[in-house]
Amino acid sequence: MKPLVLAMLSMYSILGVISPVSCATSPSLVETTFLQCLSNHSQSSNPISGVVYTSNNANFSSVLNSYVRNLRFSTPTTPKPLLIVAAKNYSHVQATVVCAKSVGLEIRIRSGGHDYEGLSYVSNKPFIVLDMFNLRSINIDLADESAWVQSGATLGEIYYAISAKSKVHGFPAGVCLTLGAGGHFTGGGYGNMMRKYGLSVDNIVDAQIVNVNGEILDRKSMGEDLFWAIRGGGAASFGVILVWKIKLVKVPEKVTVFQVKRTLEQGATDIVVQWQKVADNIENDLFVRVMLLPGNGSREGEKTITATFVSLFLGDSVRLLRLLNQSLPQLGLQQKDCIEMSWVESILFWASYPIGTSLDVLLSRVPKGLTFLKRKSDYVQEPISKTDLEALWKVMIEIGDGGMLWNPYGGKMSEISATETPFPHRAGNIFKIQYSFNWKDGELETTNRYLNLTRQLHEAMTPHVSKSPREAFLNYRDIDIGTNTEGEYKEGEVYGIKYFKHNFERLVRIKTKVDPDNFFRNEQSIPTLPPQVL
Ligand SMILES: Cc1cc2nc3c(=O)[nH]c(=O)nc-3n(C[C@H](O)[C@H](O)[C@H](O)COP(=O)(O)OP(=O)(O)OC[C@H]3O[C@@H](n4cnc5c(N)ncnc54)[C@H](O)[C@@H]3O)c2cc1C
Ligand SMILES: *[C@@H]1O[C@H](CO)[C@@H](O)[C@H](O)[C@H]1NC(C)=O
Ligand SMILES: *[C@@H]1O[C@H](CO)[C@@H](O)[C@H](O)[C@H]1NC(C)=O
Ligand SMILES: *[C@@H]1O[C@H](CO)[C@@H](O)[C@H](O)[C@H]1NC(C)=O
Ligand SMILES: *[C@@H]1O[C@H](CO)[C@@H](O)[C@H](O)[C@H]1NC(C)=O
Ligand SMILES: *[C@@H]1O[C@H](CO)[C@@H](O)[C@H](O)[C@H]1NC(C)=O
Ligand SMILES: *[C@@H]1O[C@H](CO)[C@@H](O)[C@H](O)[C@H]1NC(C)=O
């Protein structure tokens, strides 16, 4: 490390160029020096040349676009990386970190590419993408009920691998099958077993990372502070996750799912009123999500709201019906609505595949369809009254597009302390909201209109959601809540407090210790403390 940096610095001064860390050097010189550094660090057993895609490589665009999951960040004007390193061996990750640091290039780390604001593959500074999609092995140890999963593995691949080994094990993580373990877990990772088993990060027991010096560390060598930080604090501020060790959880051989849709005319409002009373304190085996969308009523020209209730129950339909008949009778759930299946089949059901679809779709890396999109989040701690819901429906009908997902909390989520991991949204939350808007053309005017609509709906919810701070979920990345491009610590950094509450201060201290020069950074990374504060 040290000699390389010194060699680099002297080379730069010979060429009469200013210090490489200033980022002011011309991209092509930086690129050339970076490539030379990579080749100097290449091991003969694992040549790095085969995994580097420079912008003149015929496959550069296809590799870049393969893991773009929001078309807003795939336009001709989107800033592009100088090159992509699609690491196949841990030595490639180490070399990339060492060389990017020594030439002063920013890196963006990408696993599944689902970051809602594209932070894993877009930057306004000269940058490279460190792509993890080739590192996707999954090794399950059933005797230990655990697995090592590399960061480029998708959730679909993980669910597939677990179910191939056991009918009674699963893992609590997200619904979308193409999410990458690298980004998804490090941002918390929630899914429909959250009320029973907590978040993905609550079930992670070890990890290997590459730190800012290019060293590979595991839980023991990184220490408990850093291991705490990467489980919910966003590893992109701290290092590169190579592999996670996850603890598998028990699932019954048969679970029950349902999806039931009700319009306002069919009593949706009363169901939602009651749902808020029970969703977070009902049995932990039950998870009922509500999806709220504006739509057409049954009569010509009439507008309504449809509330779709989607559920996973870790038990059979008899027990489910008894439970809902008691707690949410307004829904009128019937035996014919309930479908019993294996846990892995329920994953396909939740991903909207027809019953009977082959499990092979879990292995597909091609997303079901791409759109331009915007997401925001909120947390609700007091039930919203019937009168307020009715006013909200009017706003949603007026906006006439997009919608909200309401995901219940409680259960295991309330038992885990708010400081156990950086993810702070634990006891006291009834549900989390995702604001969701998709659109199909990338015209600036269309995009601005949809961004505005998303913000309007978010604005309308202000009286009903958490305050000081108005909390937000890191995995629902939202650039509207503030950025920190220069990486300087500011008192009460707004996005940091919203994502992490009091845990933000601990994250800043850990960041300052492990990456004092703020190499691992993005618009919403954890800033370092200025020297005088240390
Ligand atoms: C369709 C869709 C559905 C979703 N559903 C859910 C859901 O059910 N539950 C949920 O919790 N979230 C959900 N999300 C949000 C999702 O969890 C986050 O976008 C998550 O960050 C995606 O991880 P990724 O690896 O795919 O993304 P990436 O864009 O690759 O990474 C996201 C962030 O993590 C960093 N990162 C990625 N890999 C690494 C690594 N190896 N080391 C260090 N840093 C890394 C990136 O730099 C970036 O900052 C969904 C998103 C989409 C688009
Ligand atoms: C690569 O190695 C060569 C030979 O040892 C050295 O001259 C050169 O400065 C190195 N370049 C970089 C960027 O590390
Ligand atoms: C591009 O990808 C194709 C198909 O994967 C491959 O055959 C070809 O060699 C690649 N080209 C380069 C320049 O890497
Ligand atoms: C990388 O290469 C080395 C040998 O060159 C090998 O031992 C190791 O298993 C490879 N894989 C990873 C993931 O680093
Ligand atoms: C609602 O009806 C209008 C026409 O009245 C139609 O254009 C639109 O596609 C319908 N929307 C939905 C969601 O069915
Ligand atoms: C629901 O409860 C009512 C009485 O409270 C009872 O009549 C009905 O049979 C129950 N239905 C189911 C499916 O348990
Ligand atoms: C949306 O646009 C309208 C009109 O252009 C403007 O008045 C309003 O303030 C905007 N709302 C938000 C939340 O940006």
TrEMBL record:
Alphabetical list of InterPro entries matching this protein: BBE, FAD-bd_PCMH, FAD-bd_PCMH-like_sf, FAD-bd_PCMH_sub1, FAD-bd_PCMH_sub2, Oxid_FAD_bind_N
Keywords: Disulfide bond, FAD, Flavoprotein, Glycoprotein, Oxidoreductase, Signal
Cofactor(s) demanded: FAD
Taxonomy, superkingdom: Eukaryota
Residue ranges of every copy of the FAD-binding PCMH-type domain listed in the record: 77-251
Database matches in SUPFAM superfamilies: FAD-binding/transporter-associated domain-like
Leader peptide range in chain numbering: 1-23
Single GO MF annotation: FAD binding
Main enzyme class: oxidoreductase
EC number assigned by the record: 1.3.3.8
One Pfam family, short name: FAD_binding_4
PROSITE patterns (UniProt xref): FAD_PCMH (PS51387)
Keyword set includes Oxidoreductase: yes
Keyword Oxidoreductase in record: yes
GO BP, sorted A to Z: cannabinoid biosynthetic process
PANTHER family (UniProt xref): OS08G0158400 PROTEIN
Family (UniProt): Belongs to the oxygen-dependent FAD-linked oxidoreductase family.
Protein name stated in the entry: Putative tetrahydroberberine oxidase
Origin organism lineage: Eukaryota, Viridiplantae, Streptophyta, Embryophyta, Tracheophyta
